[in-house]
Structures are given as C-alpha cells and as structure tokens.
Amino acid sequence: MPNAKVLESKKAVVEELTGKIQNATSVVFVDYKGITVAQDTELRKQFREAGVEYSVVKNTLTNFASKNAGYDFGEVLHGTTAMASTTGDPIAPARIVCEFAKKNKTCKIAIKGGIVEGSVLSVAELNGFGELPSKNALVASVLGTFLAPISSLAFVLDQIRMQKDGGAPAEAEA
Q1: Which entry of 64, 121, 129, 146 is 20 to 30 Å from 174 by CA?
Q2: pLDDT of residue 134
Q3: What is the C-alpha to C-alpha distance for residues 38 and 55, in angstroms, rounded to an integer?
Q4: Strands 53-56, 26-33: parallel, antiparallel or unpaired by DSSP?
Q5: Rounded distance, CA 138 to CA 4, Å?
C-alpha cells in the first residue's frame, strides 16, 4: 500500500489530467521513442507557439484520468507516452506531430490515439487531421473564395470603364 502522501499526490495528478482531458478541444497521445533533446526542444517550441500543452505522462495515471473523463485509452497507454492537449485549434496537436515526424525521420515519434471535439479518433483519422492546414489557413482560403467573385466583378467593371473612357486604370488616375 503506497504512502498516504504519495497516494494524495497521485490523486491530484489524476484530477488535473481529468480536467485537461475534459476541457480540451483536442487531446493527442504521442509515442516519442528515439527523440533527442534538441528535437524535443524544437517540438515543445512548436507546441507552445500553437497554444498546445505538451507533457510526458504516466500511463496508469492517464488511464485513470481518461476513464474519469469518460474515455478508455487502455489499449494505447503503454510504453513512452506524452500528451498534447489544446483548448484552441483542435487539429493543431495532430498537425504538429505529423509535420515533425515527416521532418525528423531519425526519431520514431508517432500518434497513439486521441480525442478531437469529444470524439475518440483512430490513429489513421488523427494522421489525416495532421495533413490539414491550420485553422487560420482554412479560414483564409474560405474568405479568399468568398472575395474572388467580388474581385472579379471589380476588375471587369474597371476594364469596361477603361474601354469606355479610353483611359488608364482607376489606380493610375489617383
């Protein structure tokens, strides 16, 4: 039987992990075998810049926490495990891990499993999210699509005005 202080500290860790899992828009469990200190530092920097919390976790405590949060990750919580969670962009953790794995072939970093917007996803699905551009890039793409017809209309109207007036483009006149 563990010491009462040790047991209380473990309960506190489980409670903290449970809160992180419940409040996150995305949680990704990562296997980080063969990663060097320099590579780990680079990976942590990328996570920090994207607003993702990344930490090495104990499998047993994380399994208790995930069960408390209503999920079962007993099958994936073995070996070396780190947890990347965010309350922001839900695809950021998976995207960062996938991009990092592509750039650093020498380490064996891989996604073990995870949750996105409350749904447990397979490794294949999370790797698919890893291929998507960031949320900001997707928003910019959609906005560009919305603006394209307006820009085309403005260009056509300017061309019609130029032919009618026989002058230079509107910007040159100003």
Answers
A1: 146
A2: 64
A3: 16
A4: unpaired
A5: 50
